[in-house]
């Protein structure tokens, strides 16, 4: 996939990436050997092939999430020590910096590690060291979002939150909810979300695309929990089918972190891009992100941006608006947000004066009719 220089050079903010979803086959193989863990693959080539599923196999709608999560959790076994988590973090930050990601808010799943017997200090130390090194070596800022696993109980979420308290002021800026969604509405976690909000943390939740009861799940995140809803919703694309949800998300000023490639693996272009376009046109603050790039055909933020650029499609000005949305809804300090916005304005000025190469004119004849609103 060819990426325009305009997109590569655009100063970017990544708000939806799971650090565990950046584990490459190479690092998994290497850490497996280092830690003496027998992987369920006879060779590196076999392991690598498992990251490239048959595309026809993937077009299985909502069941795809369960299948993806099996792969994702399977990969975690090799992560044992602080140095493993550091290596995982730094590899991501170096790739991100190469794509001109200037700030990233990165999910991590501590329960998935403590459940396997990994001490929480190993996880936090490694990730925290990578966070510091990224700032020093790469000049990018990053923060983490502690995700609760929705397959586990609300009590378990409380326990991991307690365990992570010593790191609250230095390492994570918010909490989230991820994992298998069917039958696990966000409302089950209301108490821990509201506790985190009272503690001054930001709050977000996954509402994966086209999951069972998705409208109800989105509604809980957009209005019920924390009084007027969470700070952000991760995915939530199905809101575009409902006038009521669009209004609610807009009125409560909730940002949305979309990951087009994750949907496009399982749904066709005309099922995905008109919905993204509709949320954007409704002035909802949507952003474009990468989710779990190594498990999703190696598509990173630049690929996801190019996909919406070509398929929504979005003009230069609209692409810049997406980048502004990400700064607007990110959880960095006001001073850092101002730096990010100034950098983006400088880029915009250069582009307008024609100094940025390869600003192609977007073809709009490919627009597909919108599915109807309910
Ligand atoms: N954990 C990692 N990636 C996820 C996703 N896209 N949805 C739900 N849980 C996840
Ligand atoms: Zn996600």
Automatic annotation (TrEMBL):
Its cofactor is Zn(2+). Keywords: Hydrolase, Metal-binding. GO terms for biological process: adenine catabolic process; hypoxanthine salvage. GO terms for molecular function: adenine deaminase activity; metal ion binding. It holds the Pfam family A_deaminase. The keyword Hydrolase applies. Gene3D superfamilies: Metal-dependent hydrolases (3.20.20.140). GO terms for cellular component: cytosol. Residues 11-344 form the Adenosine deaminase domain. InterPro entries: A_deaminase_dom (IPR001365), Ado/ade_deaminase (IPR006330), Metal_Hydrolase (IPR032466). Transmembrane segments: none annotated. NCBIfam families: aden_deam. This is Putative deaminase. It comes from Cyphellophora attinorum.
